[in-house]
Amino acid sequence: MQNGGMDRFEGHIAGIGTTSGTRLVVGRWAASPFGAFTDVMLEDPSGRRTLLAPDREIADYVQATYTFDDVVLTPVTSTLTSDRLVVDAGDLQLRAGVGGATVLGRLLGLVPKRLATHPRWLALINPVASRLVKGVATAGSAGHGRTEYYGVTSARAISGATATWRGSDLGTLAPVLPPVRFGFSSAPPRPQLVSVTTTIRRPD
């Protein structure tokens, strides 16, 4: 969604590590300037970063916001139920179990959504965010003079995962370590699924 110089993306982000060393960040967006879509950011054990996006327009926007070594255009579909996330992205296949709310997730649920997703609030709490969750920030540069804000309103544990990438088994669930390097913030080390509103403020 676009509103007064700001682009808003509402949906979920899953951060998942695997025992192979490959880390995955899945964005499943119910509402955005591009409508509903899913994209995947993948960093392999060597540090090579790949974006999987469903079309060129989305790929160009995401590539202008984050840093990748490769961009792959491929149909990306996802299904999210009460206990499972399934992603089909061509050469990437992911099945993840979704558990209950984390302790932080329950605390986040106490903050009214309108406040929890407001850019001013997210800029205010950014200095303490990484102290609460290592490697995580709530505000930072989105490139090209833009500023990005992550407003998380809930967090649920990922209870297990299996994935394949280009025919290779990525192993089972593991922490998201080392931190991913797509943008100013990593996913939390503990694999989880968060409900999030991401706001990107364009220059005046």
Structure, briefly:
The chain has 204 residues and is of the alpha+beta class.
DSSP strand tally: 14
Largest sheet: 14 strands, mixed
Strand residue percentage: over 45%
SSE pattern: EEEEEHEEEEHHHEEEEE
Mean pLDDT: 94
Helical content (DSSP H or I, runs of 4+): 10-25%
Name the structural class: alpha+beta
Radius of gyration: 16 Å
Poorly predicted sequence stretches spanning 5 or more consecutive residues: none
Q: What is the overall shape?
A: globular
Number of helices: 4
How far is the N terminus from the C terminus?
17 Å
What is the number of domains?
Answer: 1
Description:
The chain has 204 residues and is α+β, with helices and mostly antiparallel strands. It has one domain (2-201). It contains four helices and 14 strands. Strands 1, 2, 3, 4, 5, 6, 7, 8, 9, 10, 11, 12, 13 and 14 form a 14-stranded mixed sheet that branches. The longest helix has 14 residues, at 119-132. The chain is globular and about 45 Å long. The two termini are 17 Å apart.
